[in-house]
């Protein structure tokens, strides 16, 4: 296939692109390399991708139709084309402080993508949603048909809006789309603002870790290569309109996550126990039975294996 990946220099976009390139697909990357976190990390990911002959990068912004049209011109249209829309402003707390950025990038940017998918006759769209759409759901594990009308963060609100946008474009214009609700993704080349990265930095520097929710929060941690495999499966299946949970299949306590990281680093960190932050939820747990049945999704990597892989990359990348 020929696939346009927005956010190709991002965490999940990079791993998905590698998986597609390795199997021989043609990939067009699209990314604005913004400074939400260190652009050097994005450049490092992109450098690896540019080592493949079947990869092309377009540097541009989702809010610019002129930039997007350059990428869609390379993509073309037809049954063998796909858009994998992973670019977005991420981060629950970042969304509280910067609401306009999230509305413009996540909502307007997604609308620009949908319009071009419609105009160019793209074969199908797979896009990133989030477990944040569930809010503080008190029914566990979370199922795709659970109520998602009460997100606790502006980020979650934009992701729920993306699902509604995709549904409307499918009903009005026949744009095929699959939404993927990601659950707490971690692994090599991860974002520096994510918990695992922050904890690793604090431990290695001997600084106190900020452990929110008194360490009692629970998350369905999902290794990035398992997520990428789910994204590729969604691109291949190309359902008319579906939404799937992509989680790790097991809920872990935050303190177990930290302890596993400490073992991998060989160092116990100082801990500053803090209350919950605005926008955070106590627990996330994904029911992945639908994804198992319809995508063949089968996450294999538990935190006891995935965290040491992250630490190996972290030490090599930062020469620690």
Descriptive notes:
The protein has 320 residues and is α/β, with parallel strands linked by helices. The protein has one domain (2-186, 223-247, 285-299): 3-Layer(aba) Sandwich (Rossmann fold), CATH 3.40.50. It contains eleven helices and 13 strands. The chain has helices at residues 11-22, 39-49, 65-75, 92-97, 99-120, 154-173, 195-205, 224-237, 254-265, 289-295, 303-317; strands at 2-6, 26-31, 55-59, 81-85, 125-130, 177-182, 185-186, 209-211, 218-219, 222-223, 241-246, 252-253, 271-273. Strands 3-2-1-4-5-6-11 form a seven-stranded parallel beta sheet, sandwiched between helices. It has a two-stranded parallel sheet with strand order 7-10. Helix 6 links the parallel strand 5 (125-130) and strand 6. The longest helix is centred in the middle third of the chain and has 22 residues, at 99-120. The protein is globular, with a radius of gyration of 19 Å. The mean pLDDT is 93.
CATH fold description: Rossmann fold
Our measurement of the CA-to-CA distance between the termini, rounded to an integer number of angstroms, reads 40 Å
**In terms of quaternary structure, what is this?**
single chain
Strand content: 15-25%
Shape: globular
Q: Which spans have pLDDT < 50 for at least 5 consecutive residues? A: none
Q: Number of domains in the coordinates?
A: 1
Q: What is the CATH architecture assignment?
A: 3-Layer(aba) Sandwich
The average pLDDT score comes to: 93
Q: Provide the helix percentage.
A: 40-55%
Number of separate helices:
11
Strands of the largest sheet, in order across it? Answer: 3-2-1-4-5-6-11
Order of helices and strands: EHEHEHEHHEHEEHEEEHEEHEHH
The CATH class is identified as Alpha Beta
Report the sheet with the most strands, covering strand number, pairing sense and barrel closure: 7 strands, parallel
């Amino acid at each position: 296939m020929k696939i346009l990946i927005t956010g190709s220099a991002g965490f999940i976009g990079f791993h998905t692109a590698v998986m597609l390139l390795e199997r021989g697909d043609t990939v067009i990357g699209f990314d604005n390399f913004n400074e939400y976190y260190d652009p050097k990390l994005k450049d490092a990911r992109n450098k690896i991708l540019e080592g493949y002959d079947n990869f092309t990068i377009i540097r541009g912004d989702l809010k610019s139709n002129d930039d997007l049209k350059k990428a869609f011109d390379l993509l073309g249209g037809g049954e063998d084309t796909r858009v994998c829309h992973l670019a977005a402003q991420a981060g629950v707390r970042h969304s509280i402080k910067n609401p306009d950025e999230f509305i413009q990038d996540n909502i307007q940017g997604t609308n620009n993508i949908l319009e071009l998918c419609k105009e160019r006759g793209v074969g199908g769209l797979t896009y990133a949603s989030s477990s944040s759409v569930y809010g503080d759901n008190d029914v566990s594990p979370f199922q795709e048909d659970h109520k998602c009308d009460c997100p606790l963060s502006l980020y979650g609100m934009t992701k729920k809006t993306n699902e509604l946008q995709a549904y409307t474009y499918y009903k009005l214009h026949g744009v095929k789309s699959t939404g993927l609700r990601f659950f707490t993704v971690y692994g090599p080349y991860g974002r520096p603002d994510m918990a695992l990265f922050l904890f690793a930095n604090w431990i290695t520097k001997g600084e106190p870790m900020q452990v929110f929710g008194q360490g009692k929060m629970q998350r369905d941690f999902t290794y990035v290569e398992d997520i990428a495999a789910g994204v590729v499966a969604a691109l291949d299946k190309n359902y008319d309109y579906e939404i799937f949970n992509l989680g790790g299949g097991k809920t872990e306590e935050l303190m177990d996550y930290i302890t596993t990281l400490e073992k991998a680093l060989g160092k116990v960190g100082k801990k500053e126990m803090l209350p919950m932050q605005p926008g955070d939820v106590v627990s996330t747990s994904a029911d992945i039975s639908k994804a198992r049945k319809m995508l063949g999704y089968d996450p294999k990597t538990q935190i006891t294996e995935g965290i040491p892989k992250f630490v190996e990359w972290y030490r090599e990348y930062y020469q620690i």
